[in-house]
Amino acid sequence: MPSIAEPRKTFTLSQVAASIKKTLEARYHSEYWITAEMNKLNYYSHSGHCYPELLEKKDGKVVAEMRSVLWKGNFDRINDRFREVLKMPLSDGLKILFLAKITFHPTSGVQLQIVDIDPSYTLGDLQREKNETIEKLKSEQIFDLNHRKELPLLPQRIAIISASTSKGLGDFLKIIDENPLNYRFFHMLFPAYLQGEKAVTSIVEQLQRIRKVIHHFDVVAIIRGGGGDVGLTTFNHYEISSAIANFPIAVITGIGHSTNETVAELVAHYNAITPTKTGEFLLQKFRDFDQVISEAQTSIVSCTRNSLNDQKEKLQLSAKFLKSGTEKLVNRNQGEIKSISQKISHQITSNLTQKRNDLSATTKDIQSVSNSILSRNKWKTTDFSEKVNNSAKRFLVDQQTKISQFQKNINIMDPINTLKRGFSITRFNETAITDSDTVSIGDDLEITLFKGKINANINSKK
Question: From the record, what ranges are coiled-coil (predicted)?
């Protein structure tokens, strides 16, 4: 015969839930400080409550996960403290140290009721991550690599990494595109996430894209709209910092208002802090160059004007000296020519007088001799006398012709007449030149004409 089954003890679900609740409350009756990563805040604006998702990871894997609740009153108080300490509200992805109660509810199960969160722990964790990144970059000797990249004199072609909707991007473009001096820039946006889980991968990928077309750009600008230390944690990440440090051209950053620089800002060629100041930094390069050009232009004009004035004064002084010297030299040479002419004229007159005297004496001698001969030789025929007379006349005519020719030659030899016929006297260092070997190419000559003088320079000679 079949055995009669013993009656089973059964519980309702609510009884089990009540038992679990009683057991947990008896075991976990205190509040506990717990560390975890707040994966999502899950804030509900209509109620003001939050239902954070808490995780613990090890080697990149989730090893624990729990739900929690943060009531509106506690959330408002904690959020205000985060804004005060971290300059940033409570948000997703933070590592937190929080005070919580372990609770159980029949419908929601076990969860942690967060009572308080210590913002200093979150800040310290961010600083530890930052320090680790810095030490690693320095150990690899790449920390200041981008600092040594040379920024072009006029960085005109800009590759921009930013979110397309970023207010900071708008501020940056307004500065460089609407500058009052009308400097022209070429810029291209490489859109990227600047915070959150995708930020690191997104920024590194855009740097890689820019590297492929690096010859089109002078500089890379990473632009973000600002924020507190927590919002900038992405830029303490090793992958981003390493990519910036190793980048082949200069990288400048304008990613926030924080006085505590991120690692990305520290390794960049220049950190302008804000998007606006980044634009002003680039404009200043053009202003500096413009100033140099303006000063050089002013200096060149001034030096040229001074040089022209100096040369004008020297030219006027030289012209004055040349005129004075020329006048003196002309006057002196004119005196010399006049003196020589007088000497020649006097000599000619003296010679003519002497010749006339000689001719007169000769004539008398001839007549005397003729008379004497005639007296002694009366027996000679008249024909002989006529011959003698004719010979004497011919002699006299010849002598007169010679005297006239001599007079003409003397007149021809007069320097004034020689100069009248187009001849000239060429002097070098006040000495008349008769041989081309006595002068050289480049020497200055003085040429005396019938009227006036000419200064010349030797270009060639034969």
Answer: none
111 vs 109: CA distance, rounded Å = 6
Quote the mean pLDDT of the chain: 85
12: tokens are 């309702």
Q: Strands 109-118 and 186-191: what pairing?
A: unpaired
* Tokens representing residue 147 in the block: 């600092």
CA 265 to mean position of chain CA atoms: 27
The neighbour count for residue 381, using CB atoms within 10 Å, is 9
Output the pLDDT for position 260.
67
Q: For 153, list phi and psi in degrees, rounded to 5.
A: -55, -40
Contact 185, 286 (CB under 8 A): no
Higher-confidence residue of 406 and 192: namely: 192
Contacts 24+ apart (CB under 8 A), 440-449: 446/329, 448/333, 448/337, 448/419, 448/424, 449/419, 449/424
Token pair 């929601």 is at which residue?
108
Q: What is the DSSP letter of 232?
A: G
User: E strands within 106-178?
Assistant: 109-118, 157-162
The pair of three-digit structure tokens given for residue 449, joined into one six-digit string: 């004409």
